[in-house]
Design a protein that fits this description.
alpha/beta, 9% strand, 4-stranded parallel beta sheet, binds iron/sulfur cluster, 442 residues, Fumarate Reductase Iron-sulfur Protein, Chain B, domain 2
Length: 442
């Protein structure tokens, strides 16, 4: 009964919030999905009209509503361009949750989310086991971006280039900072700025699933960048997923479990900031955790306290760290262009800082691409469910990147890195895709 009352309250909330849309259509001009399809049902206005009647739609065709919501990249372009400040992303997330509360999760989602993702130790073991046999069904794509593709007999993902699973490692370094240690000497030789342990800040590092499981080089570069800037790093032995994939699937049970798990892990450590190198994890912890905690049994104060300490690594290095310059070496500087991840720029307003991090390494020159802040077309499950649409958006991004004649394209989000790598690799470009801290530390 309590659950039913909660559901009715949530549906009314969605109806009222969707009703604040005045149907002006300003969101049409910026929606990357609408730009491809021209369908009113794909733009925020069309979806909000549907959600205003969610009470009826829920009984008539809940799967149809979900299908419509799945054709959204969660890029937030409509939110920043809305004159009425309609929080479209929040309404879409709550709608998914309401529908899943009503219909229940499918068996496949239950296995992936409730059996797997909910339990970080189990999930890590599962991924590690798959990583041991992955070479049987994939091979290097054979170009500069370091991606792989599936072998001929494998029936899935035949049209994609992707990164293989990495062996899971622990990235924490709790030992005192020591610039003369063997490990750190090579990092410190890159600068003439003195080591200053008096300025030492202590941070915890939240690596995020994609970085831990697919792109561990970003975690290593992040650690190096923090140590290099006189920061002491601690990290949880086994953090859980930030919960973003779970809440985007409407699964508030898994989401709440992961929030509570991570709260307990990080509250047991003492640190000044929780630094992440993943735009989506930062967005989830800072914005989605507090939004969902208001309507759950999780203590909102604890969530807000951790959210306030959470900071993107680029922003941390620029605003809280020192961002020491890396000396120019005796070689031609490499052109780098930067793609703004939606969850950094549109959701958190972070755009200058990653560029400053890139420019702090004097061996690189930043050259802006056209439409640097246009979504790359990944959108998590959007890419899985709507790959041909995702590809059309991805190819446009790849062409903007190519036009800069860069050697490297950087982005502050591992999901964008995966998407851009797919299209850069398939187009046989001589371009590497990196995180800004990897550029800074290379
Ligand atoms: S811009 Fe905002 S108010 Fe205008 S149609 Fe889109 S969501 Fe509604
Ligand atoms: S979040 Fe992005 S993809 Fe979704 S409706 Fe808004 S602009 Fe379109």
């Amino acid at each position: 009964m309590a659950d039913l009352i909660k559901l009715i309250r949530l549906i009314r909330e969605i109806r009222d919030e969707a009703g604040t849309c005045k149907r002006c259509g300003s969101c049409q001009a910026v929606c990357p999905v609408y730009a491809q399809t021209g369908l009113e049902s794909d733009v925020a206005r069309g979806k909000l009209t549907l959600l205003e009647g969610l009470e009826q739609e829920m009984f008539k065709n809940p799967k149809g509503v979900l299908k419509r919501l799945d054709r959204c990249l969660s890029c937030g372009s409509c939110v920043v361009n809305c004159p009425r400040n309609v929080n479209v992303l929040e309404i879409f997330i709550k709608s998914r949750v309401a529908i899943m509360d009503f219909t229940g999760l499918s068996m496949v989602k239950k296995i992936i989310l409730r059996w797997g993702l909910s339990y970080p130790r189990r999930f890590d073991y599962f991924i590690k086991s798959v990583s041991l046999v992955q070479k049987l069904f994939m091979k290097p794509a054979g170009n500069k971006s370091g991606t792989f593709c599936v072998r001929q007999f494998f029936p899935f993902f035949r049209d994609r280039h992707f990164f293989p699973l990495a062996n899971l490692q622990k990235y924490g370094k709790a030992e005192p900072l020591n610039p003369s240690s063997e490990q750190n000497r090579s990092i410190f030789s890159k600068t003439s700025a003195p080591y200053n342990h008096k300025k030492e800040l202590k941070v915890a590092f939240f690596s995020g699933c994609v970085i831990r499981k697919l792109l561990p080089g970003i975690a290593r570069a992040s650690m190096d960048a923090l140590i290099f800037n006189n920061v002491k790093v601690v990290s949880s032995d086994r953090e859980g997923c930030c919960g973003f994939p779970a809440i985007m699937a409407g699964d508030r049970v898994t989401f709440n479990r992961l929030v509570q798990y991570n709260l307990a892990k990080f509250e047991s450590l003492k640190f000044d900031y929780l630094v992440t190198s993943c735009a989506t994890c930062t967005f989830a912890i800072k914005k989605i955790w507090p939004m969902m905690a208001k309507d759950s049994r999780i203590n909102l104060e604890r969530v807000v306290a951790l959210a306030e300490k959470t900071i993107d690594i680029n922003q941390f290095l620029v605003l809280k760290g020192e961002l020491k310059e890396i000396k120019k070496e005796d070689k031609e500087p490499v052109i780098v262009t930067y793609h703004d991840p939606c969850h950094l720029k549109k959701s958190l307003g972070i755009a200058k800082e990653p560029r400053k991090v890139i420019c702090a390494n004097k061996n690189y020159i930043l050259k802006e691409m056209e439409n640097a802040d246009r979504c790359c077309g990944f959108g998590g499950s959007f890419n899985l469910k709507n790959y041909s649409l995702s590809s059309r958006i991805g190819v446009e991004k790849q062409r903007d990147i190519r036009a800069t004649e860069c050697g490297i394209v950087a982005s502050g989000c591992p999901a964008c890195i995966m998407q851009i790598s797919d299209f850069v690799s398939k187009a046989q470009e001589e371009i590497i895709v990196k995180h800004p801290v990897e550029v800074y530390m290379s």
